[in-house]
């Protein structure tokens, strides 16, 4: 395992090891409503979840059930109308936008179904982007070398070295998703949120991405993954179902309080 | 760090960015060209205007003029030697200039006489040269230093030797060789070297010896004529002389004005003079209107010198004419001298004879002749009037601020005028109150103000155009933000703050401004520096493309100097307005909600 994939021990043990009992993410009673014209769509109606360090958790649900919304709220990309999300006992919506910005930079990583790479940047630059966001203009010269080394290592680990100067439009879907994964990991996040990471890929490429995620999890990376694919969800330690705005455990269908 | 990185990347990778940069560049270049050309024009006008008058000018706002001018000049030079270096009186009057056909009076058909309405200026040449830059614009005096004088003189004809070769009179040739000998004029030596064939060329125009020298060799007062009256300005800014040679006889017609503003009793003056030089101030309005005479000569022509005899005419009401009663004459004179408590003294006598109806003698100091003519009865005042000038110009010592000097001179003038009260004829000199004392800048404010306003107007017009262009830059940036909504979501998803994202676009606007300003400044600077070459190229392609006509703008070259402070101001302005133009786009970018943006396709 490369250094890049060797996660910070504070994230807890990998899936092969029992997860820490104390959850690093604790979400309670999340509510989110979308207003579309005259219609009010209550996407989340009191969803709660705990995520422990080192877990690989899959969130399933029907299309439009609010899986992505939940993931975005857990990852501080979106704000619920009610409820709270705590990261290591710190309420992430109480500290204002700056706290959420910092969490997204340093603590959370995101992988999206549609990769969301910046088309003007090549592979290396896309991967380096979070590292640049985390660094001030004055601090960058001192950090640049290490950041570039970490980015190159990730790119190498993900088999993208031959493509390092390529732009996203010159890459296949699988390659793009690997670039997105590398970008999400470059700042060594404590929690990786993946929104349908294989949803836009063919089966074989999707399988490769899943294997990568498993490798990461094995290395101690906490991963929360949204999927509608049962076979994908089956590879998680734990699967939660989002129905009627609330999360349910798959085993026993019991709602999490 | 990402702000700078993304800002620079978007600058390089988006075609629309180049359009924004091009717009800023074009506007900066245009603004620089406009401001530089107009500013240069203003500077040239200012420089020329500065050289036309003294540092301080005292004008008579009445047509009678300023009395005691020489006394005042002497007073200032004595009382304020640290302020005033030199003073020079000037007389202005309107008149007609007649340039007789140089082919002689014997020619009776197809005559080429030219008559122009002119402004006749009387000046003491030596003083005018010291007080103003007048001497710098004298053509013949430049090439034949020291030979231009306004004193009566004969025409300097070309000499002719036994071989039939023409040459200049010895004194003029010597003066010209002296001109060539100076180091500053070394480059011109080649041009005036003797030729194998014909006489060596000499600047100016000279007549060959007359058939009857005596007839044409009368000493006449020297006259300097504005160059546009005796030459045609060519498109390249040079002059093509008409047939008038140096020393050619010209005529002036003028109407003397009495001390109280009426036509002088001496009537219209028609006097001859010799054209001995042409004045090239560079200001068309002056060069096409002014003829210069010796101050004392013109003063004499205009009856503005010291007078001992009667030259003043007053029309009396018909009733007074009939009676010639003392009180009636008192009333009539009081009306004439409206500002004064004027009354005939008991000793005044009223007499009459065949030609002159009555004599009024006041205290033995003034004599008024009441003339009876067929229809009019006039009072003619004969009194010792002081000499008058239309204007006094002062040159100040180096480093003296004209505005401060003006304040002191105004006080000095009031004090000086007060001292004149003791003189017997001060009551007639009401016009001194109307004299205006101005600095050179105030004096030339009409022409300077016009050019300044023109510059301001053109700058405002182009500024408005520039604002439109900046609005376009803002629109372009807004479009870019629209296009980049998803990218903004991505950038925010990796932790960029709203301010950070806004900073990308503010920086982007600033970078567009900086690049546009730098390239536009360089382009504008290069264009301005070569603007005359560009015009020459256009003229070669099509003469109708001439945009700067020396006949219109008085200067033969388009001003091509760029003021660095103006360049910097325009460049900084462009950067600022580009940033301002990007504010809305940046604000919107900062407000993009990442989740919404990531859904944006």
Task: Spell out the blueprint of helices and strands.
The complex is a heterodimer of chains A (257) and B (601).
Chain A: E1 23-36, E2 39-52, E3 56-61, H1 67-74, E4 82-87, E5 90-91, H2 96-107, E6 108-111, H3 123-133, H4 140-157, H5 173-185, E7 191-195, H6 203-218, E8 222-226, H7 230-233, E9 238-243, E10 246-249
Parallel strand pairs in A: 3-8, 3-9, 6-7, 7-8
Antiparallel strand pairs in A: 1-2, 1-4, 4-5, 9-10
Chain B: H1 2-13, H2 15-52, E1 56-59, E2 66-67, H3 69-79, E3 84-99, E4 114-123, H4 125-131, H5 139-143, E5 159-160, E6 166-167, H6 170-181, H7 213-216, E7 222-226, H8 227-230, E8 231-233, E9 239-241, E10 249-254, E11 269-279, H9 284-287, E12 290-294, H10 295-301, E13 310-315, H11 318-323, H12 326-336, E14 356-362, E15 366-372, E16 377-382, E17 388-389, E18 391-396, H13 402-420, E19 436-439, H14 440-443, H15 445-483, H16 485-493, H17 498-529, H18 531-541, H19 550-553, H20 564-591, H21 594-599
Provide tags for this entry.
heterodimer; A: about 260 residues; alpha/beta; Rossmann fold; six-stranded mixed sheet; 10 strands; globular; disordered C terminus; B: about 600 residues; alpha+beta; 4 domains; six-stranded mixed barrel; four-stranded antiparallel sheet; about 20% strand
